[in-house]
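User: Fold this; tokens only.

Assistant: Input:
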Amino acid sequence: MNKTFFFFFLCCVSSGAFAQELISMSTRDSELQSSFAGRSIVATSAAQVKSLRDNTWVSLEGLIIEETGEELYEFRDNSGSVYVNIDDELWLGQHATPGSIVAIVGEMDKDLSTTEIDVKTIRVIK
């Protein structure tokens, strides 16, 4: 009788632990399939930037025409131009000239009198 009870008890305990492990494995698998959905980045043109809201993330491709101030540049694409603020450390050793094509990702910075892009990443394409 004691052996039967012990065997029954052992089966119940181990099946509960087994079920818990299956649930845990299922949860881990679903976590691996999940992804983060944060801010979206709007691929846009220099002309369209002026109509976007403050703090909108944008992606542009075009030319840096000239440096107009400390870390402030005029960016131009086929649609027009906009000012971009590029911190010196973001260049990461890349070199650009007025004819270089660059890709930038940044955040719109608008106030009453100015519109510019606070660049977060820049990549010299050619």
